[in-house]
Amino acid sequence: MAESSMLVSNRLPRAVGLLGTGVIGSGWAARFILNGVDVRVYGRSTGAVERVQERLAKARRACRRLTGVPLPSEGSLSVVKSIADAVQEVELVQESAPECLEVKQQLLAEASRAAAPGTLICSSTSGFRPSLLQAKTENPERVLVAHPFNPVYLVPLIELCAGQHTAPEAVAQAAEIYRVVGMHPLFVRKEVEGFIANRLQTAVWREALWLVHDDLATVQEIDDAVRYSFGLRQPIFGPFLTYFVGSGQTSFRSFLEKWGPGQKSCSKLEEVPEYTDAFLHKLTEQSNARALTENLTISEFEQKLDEGIVAVLNGLRSLDYGAGETLSRWEQGLRDRVP
What are phi and psi of 94, to 5 degrees? Predict the structure, then answer.
């Protein structure tokens, strides 16, 4: 344990450059700063400092409840005025601009021109293939996708996807950096839009839309169906093992023969309901009603989400299983860094 911990600890970057200060960009700032990494942030929109500081305050509160291990001295936060300033003398650049291919290509191209040749350049994109993103960069072998999930400072998964020109050592180097700040790298085998987790998440979202569209369930009922049933089981095993464990079968073969693709499906598959004015009105009306029953502000909803994730992670840590093992490994790394 000590040997591997030292290997990972040595990969803690001194500084990272962040392009974008939205929910994802500010979440990245919080995760790195709370791990003792200096952060340089470039954002085009106004209020960048305020957004990052607000997200950092939420992350501090959540992480203090997440672990009893003392966090390191916080890294510094610098909000800079240019991409060049953000990427100078950093070991990793994390782009988190809006999901517009042209915008991302422009940012990544400019970052690759200004950064040192060995700097890792990662995109937080939730859907674009990395080969598209590295098409206009000067050092495409250092460019890859590193797709996180909100809130970035709590959710440990990071999907790593290499492009056509990405060097294998760049992916390995990125994985070491993300591990040391408490994340669980998942290597996407082939380039595919949406990667893995988002494609699974979107399938549930698509079915939820159809249930509302066809007046089979309300927004409230769908949210309750998930959070009171399979939503409780998924953090432990994931879909495959969860279904098998609850099937009563003694082997995966017998389980698949009983519940596999030969069974009639009621799914809408990839068909998506049209967002007509009437459907948008229905979704909005029911979502507002759902929110009114909780009587919480957006900020309070975010805090509930943080507290819920902390509770789940702490429960899994007591089992040293799944994301709980990732949390335990991060805590051990923090202990190893104490002089």
Answer: -115, 110
Find all residues with CB under 8 Å of 259, minimum gap 6, and list them.
243, 247
By the 8 A CB rule, do 27 and 148 touch? yes
- The residue ranges of every structural domain in the chain are 2-195+330-337, 198-295
Distance CA 124, CA 113 (A): 19
Question: How confident is the model over 76-96, as pLDDT tens digits?
Answer: 999 999 999 999 999 999 999
Q: What CA dihedral angle connects 112, 162, 95 and 86, to 10 degrees?
A: -40
Q: What is residue 16's three-state secondary structure? A: strand
- Answer yes or no: are the C-beta atoms of 146 and 118 closer than 8 Å: no
Residue 123 phi/psi, 5° resolution? Answer: -110, 140
Contact 144, 167 (CB under 8 A): no
What CATH code is assigned to 2-195+330-337? 3.40.50.720
Q: Among residues 37, 39, 30, 34, which one has the least CA distance to residue 69?
A: 34
pLDDT tens column, 254-300: 766 776 655 555 665 667 788 888 988 888 888 888 778 888 888 88
Nearest of 197, 193, 142 to residue 165 by alpha carbon: 142
